[in-house]
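Morning F.,

Quick status update on the modeling queue. The single chain you submitted on Monday has been processed. Sequence for confirmation:
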Amino acid sequence: MKTSPDLSHAQWVKSSFSGNGGVNCVEWAPAFVPAGVVPVRDSKAPSGPALTFTPQAWADFVRAVAGGVFGEV
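Structure tokens below.
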């Protein structure tokens, strides 16, 4: 069984694509990537939940978004 990493002391970095007056605000914690986890959260709700992805799953998602799979970016 996998457990979620302790993100209580994570150092979050705002995505370079965040902006639009606070509409699209995503942060991630790069220090966890070597352990095989990409934590992602909404920077407008820092005390809210974070999602975790494998590096491959996150790369696939980012590629799909950039490719317009989910609509206009």
